[in-house]
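Supplementary Note 3. Input sequence used for the single-chain structure prediction.
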Amino acid sequence: MRRWLAFFALTATLAGCGRQAPLAPVVDHVDSEDATPFVLASALDPRLPEPLAESDDAGAVDRAEIATAHGRHGDDSPSFVNPAIFWSERCTQYGLARRLPPPLMARAYGLTHVAIYDALIAARHPRRGRPSERAVAAGAASKVLVYLFPGDSAAIMSAAHAEADLGRRHSDAARRGWLLGRAVGELVVIHGRNDRSDTPWDGSMPTGDGIWTGTNPVLPMCGAWKTWITTSGGEFQPEPPYAFGSPEDLDDVETVYQASLNRTPEQIAIVHKWADLPPPTIWCGLLNDRIRRDRLDAFAAARAHAFLNATMMDAFVSCWRTKYQHWTARPFQRIPGLVTVIPTPNFPTYTSGHSTISGAAAEVLAALFPSERAFFRAQADEAALSRFWGGIHFHHDDDAGLAVGLQIGAKAVRVMRGGRFRVPIAAR
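The predicted structure, written as discrete structure tokens, is reproduced below.
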């Protein structure tokens, strides 16, 4: 029944060409003093520079960077794009150029936006004396992005210096903001170095009927990575995949085969809509559109991006734990001669990553923009169905993944609305 409801919702969306009428601005809002940070213990975390003395605590490297920025000439100037959008687009640029697998793309977005959000929480404390928020975001984001993409460090730092506007105003607010952001960024880098994303794989794979038979699977240890909001990748898990050869399993196989013979142009277009970019990039784009439309301030945009991307990261960890627990064969491994719309990714089928992270992302965006709740949930259904229409997933992969994603998203919303500083989210 859910599939048919999703189909009718998608038909309605397509009939309107996916265009949304102007809506009321976001109503879910939390002031910075009521925000829960991810990595910081509080806005006055003792690991950060003392308020109003950020420049005094600067190390030799930071002083050299400021001196370099002061000596810059040319056309570089602040973009005046919302900082969350600016650094989201830089992360997209570098991640796509490196062809990061979707879980690593989500990790990059998550680390970058958590750094910006936590840094702005610190910057908005009354004792900080209002440092430049653009400089804060630039300092935090650049520290993380250079860690993630060291080969692009020159371009990252050039953009960061321009965004911080260190070379033009030479203002105390810009310098202090830059240094505070760099300090927060360093704490997020430390988190990244300890998130288990470099855990080696021992190469062991199961064998048997209905088992995935590829080689060099993508990120088989991702299910053990450290999560942001959920306790681990195992907190939310689906029911097991259908038993090989069971009536439910054989029905799933036959349904994929029949769909491959009867694809419509609209279905093929939807397959490409969700496959031509990594799903985290697509959901970040939906958020960026609304930040622009509603003219969100720097903090509201940073908060939205931090929770969206941390949630998607957790959803990937959960999904990859499922994939490499069961090692379920892909449709093309079960159906000789199956024609797919897009290449099948090189990892097991159960559950669908697109479905899991889209369900999670839709819940966060629906909470942030409640007047668009139905739209976001329809987009999640569409993302899930796109993998079936493409011939690379079974219905059970999509349905189970979407259900888990909705649970992860619901927990993220509860945490997002959780109130004043208690325990940093990353320590939960």
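The two ends are 37 Å apart (CA to CA). Residues 32-51+68-193 form one domain.
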